[in-house]
Amino acid sequence: MKIAFIGAGVMGEAIISAIISKKIASPDSIWACDIDKARLDLLDRKYSINCTADIQSAIHDCEIIVLSIKPQTLSDVTGQLKGKLKNEQLVLSIIAGTRIGTITSTMGHNSVVRVMPNTPAQIGEGMSVWTATDGVNQEQRNMAQTILQAMGKEIYLSDEKYIDMATAISGSGPAYIFLVIEAFIDAAVHIGLPRDLAGELALQTMLGSARMVLETSKHPAELRNSVTSPGGTTAEGLLYLEDGGLRAIITQAVIATYNKAQLLGSENNR
Hints:
The protein has helices spanning 10-21, 37-47, 55-59, 74-81, 100-107, 138-150, 161-171, 173-190, 195-216, 220-227, 233-243, 246-268, and strands at 3-6, 30-33, 50-52, 64-67, 90-93, 112-116, 126-132, 152-156. It is α/β, with parallel strands linked by helices. Strand 4, helix 4 and strand 5 form a beta-alpha-beta unit. Helix 7 packs across helix 12 and helix 8 (173-190) packs across helix 9 (195-216). The protein is elongated and about 70 Å long. 31% of the residues are buried. The model has no long low-confidence stretch (mean pLDDT 93).
């Protein structure tokens, strides 16, 4: 499998690392294209892949072209790709907010997969949601799925409207979880725990709680109730969280993220 990456930022590197570690593609069959020479030099040293600043050199003979660029560079990149892609080449886009219709129309190419990955893909624990045009054949779907499974879990969605919704949960969600972890650690330090111990307690508590929901298949409310004794310490803490509007704040954050994703989509898809 030969793969070209147009844009070699954090998520592009996450995919490169995953497909090399899972032996989906060898380093000599991967091309990274970016205008940042220092970035390309770093990827060359770390992964021994092919690196270039020229898009045409990168996409030549590659079966898959991954668009991992910033939304604001979309028109320039698709302009360079228009008329240069072969019918059998698959374009896999991870550009935030950019709809498939925009990509197909600006490139004049109909074999496109749109993906919303997230940063835990860097350690093989990612969550990717994706959809595809009718021009993507079964073999190409299988290739896309193989790449995404190398990064963690993947879910195919037949309706593209759910991609922006997923952006608000799995795409941006890690940042919210990191903030909660940070707050837990700082709170633990505030009451007197050493920072290294506070970090260990907070991280394992987060990890264990998430795994418990997954492995028991119980509703989070049921598990929460099992921890909460009447008149106990947990009940007291939960009262503060409810009074502080934790549920409402999380809901508002997700809605704001979704609205922003749609706004980006409207700007990119004019």
